[in-house]
Amino acid sequence: MKKTSTRSPLLNIAWVHLISKKRQTIVAMLGVMFGVTVFIFQAGLLTGLQSYFIEKTVNTTAHVHIYNDVRVARPNVLDLESDTAGTWTMVRNQKPRDEERRLRNGYQILREIERDARVEGVAPYLGLQGILRYGMSQQAGTLAGIDVQREDQLFHVADNLIAGELVRMETLPNAVILGSGLAEKLGARLNDNITVISSRGVSLDMKVVGISKTGITLQDNTRAYISIRNAQRLLQQSAAYITDINVRLREVDIAQSIATEYQNVFGYKAEDWKAANANVFGIFRIQNLTVSFVIISILVVSGFGIFNILMTIIYEKMPDIAILKAMGYRDRDIRRVFLIESIAIGTTGGLLGLLLGFITSKIVGMIPLNIQGFVSVQYLIINFNPLFYLAAFGFALVSTTVAGYFPARKAARFDPVEIIRSR
Amino acid sequence: MGSPIITATHVTKTFTEPVEFKVLNDISLTVDRGEFVVLVGPSGSGKTTLMYTLSTLDTEYDGTISIDGVDIRGLGKDAVADFRNSMIGFVFQFHYLLPDFTVLQNVMLPAQRRGILSAEEMEDRAMKTLSMLGVADQATKKSSKLSGGQQQRVAIARALINEPKIIFGDEPTGNLDTKNTGLVLDILNELKAEFNQTILMVTHDVQFARRADRIISIRDGRIVDNEEHYSPSSH
Ligand SMILES: Nc1ncnc2c1ncn2[C@@H]1O[C@H](COP(=O)(O)OP(=O)(O)O)[C@@H](O)[C@H]1O
Ligand SMILES: [Mg+2]
Prior knowledge:
Chain A is of the alpha+beta class.
C-alpha cells in the first residue's frame, strides 16, 4: 500500500490507462519498434554499402585525375588566324585532331606534381579500348597501360591479385593482368597466352601473369593491365605518349581544391574522385531519399497508431478526466497524463526497436551472400554508427510526442460540466 | 448566524443553444459557514446549473459569486482549479470513482493533487475517513468491485480528504436504494453536527430536505422560496 501512495498520481493514472488497454498499447508499441528497427537496419545497410564503395573508390581510383578533355570543342581554326573583330568566318567538318587525347609534356607534369608535398604518389596512364582474344573466345576490354611500380604504389595492384605475381609484369616483356570477371568471360587462366588487338589493328601476344579482383564489379569485368610501353605500341605511339595522370593525395578531403589548382596550372582537365563518381553519388542521394521516405512513412504510421490509442482512451476515460478536473487537477495535469502515455509507448517501442534493429543488422551481416552490384561483396556491410541509433530513437520520440500531443490537448480542454451533465 | 461563506449576487446565466433561454435569472443568495442548505425545485428548473456555478465548476455567468471572500471570476483557470482542490468537495449522483484504481488510491487523488501531506499522512487520513464512512475494509479493493452504496460512501470520503470548507452535492442519493440513502444522509448529518461542515445539496428527496437548515426552492431559474427550516441540528 505504501508503494502505490508514493507514486505520482499522474504516472499512476497513465500506467493504469495503458494496462487497461494492453493489446492496443502493445500494437502501438510494436508500430514504433518496427519503425525504429527499419530505420536502423536500412540506414546501416545503405550507408554501410555506400561507405564501403567510397572506401574502395578512395583506395582504388585516383584522387585527382588529369586528362585531356576531348569533349572541349576545338576553336575555329580561322578565328585563331584573323584577329579583325568584324570578320565572320566558318569552318565546316572541323574534326577533332588525332593527338587530342595526348597530354603534351605529360612526364614533365608528372615530375612537377611529384614534388608537391601534398601528394603521396603519381602515376602515368595510357588507356585504350581493345579486343582480348583467347582461342575462340573474344572480349572487349579496357587495356590499362601502367607504370607498374607507380601504379602499385598508388592503387595497391599487388594486394588485389587473387592469382599470379606483380613482378612478372616487369620481368616479362609482354605480360597482362586480367580483371577476374574478364578472365572468367574469356576463359583464360594464369600463364595462358592471349592476344590483344587495338583499334589501330596492332596485335600483341601476351601472357597472363595475374588475375586481379578489386571488388568494383565494372573494373573487374573489363580491365586488363598491360605495361605503358605496350599500350604505346598498340597505339603506334612514341614513348612519351600518355593520356592520363593519376594522383593520390595524403588527404582525400582536399582533392577538389587541388584538382582546380592543377587544372589552372597545367591547362588540362583535372577531376577529383567525387566528380569522377558523380553519377554514383547521385544514385546514393536518390537511395538515401527513398529510404528516408520509407522510414518517415513508417514513423508517421506508428504515430497514427499512438494517436489512435490515445483518442480511444480519452473518450473512454472522459468521466475520469471530468472528476479529476472537478477535484482540482489542472488542465496541464490532464495533458501530462496523456503525454506520459505516448512518451511511454514511444520510449519502450523505441528501445525495443533499437535492440531489434541491432540484432537484425548483426544477423543479416552474418549471412553469406554473393552480391554483384556496384561493388561485389560476400557479406552485406552494415554500418553500426551510434548516430543512427540516436537519430532513430530521437525520431521515434518526436513522432510519438507529436502524435500524443493532440489527444492530450483535447483531453485537457474537456469541460467537466458537460461530461458530468451528460451522464 | 455565522458569517457567509458563499455569496452570490445577481447571478444570471443564459444558454444560447438550442434556443436562447435564461437558465439562471438574477439569483442572489448567501450560505453561512456550517449551514446545511438544500436546493429543491422541479426538473429542469436550473438546480444543477446553479450548483455548478456556485461550486466554481462553471465560471460562465453574469453577476458575482464569491467564496470565502474570493471573487471566483477574478481567478485564472489554474487558480480556480487549485481553489476547488483545497476548498470544495463534490458528491455527484454517480460516484465517478476511477474504476481501475483501488478505493484507497481513489480517495487519495485530491490529496495528491494538493501535495501538502506526506505519503504516510495522506494514507493515514484516507484510512480514517474511510473508516468513518464504514468502508475501511474495502481500501485495497478495486473501486469497481464495490456495491453502489459502498462506492458512493467512498466518493464522499474522497470529497472529504482535503478537509474542504464546502461540500457540494447533486442528488447524491439519486441512484441509491432506501437503506443506502439513509446511510448517506446520516453521514452528511454527522458531518454537519460534528465538524460543522458547510453543505449545499441539490435534491428531490423530501427525507433529505427535512434535515436541512434551509431549503431554497427554485423554479424557472429564479428563487421562489428561501426559508429557514427548523431541524434538530440548528440551534
Ligand atoms: N449545455 C446546455 N445547453 C443548453 N441547455 C442546457 C444545457 N445544460 C442544461 N440545459 C438546460 O437548462 C435547464 C436547467 O438544467 P439543470 O440545471 O440541469 O436543471 P435541474 O438540475 O434543475 O434539472 C434544462 O432545461 C436543461 O435542459
Ligand atoms: Mg439536475
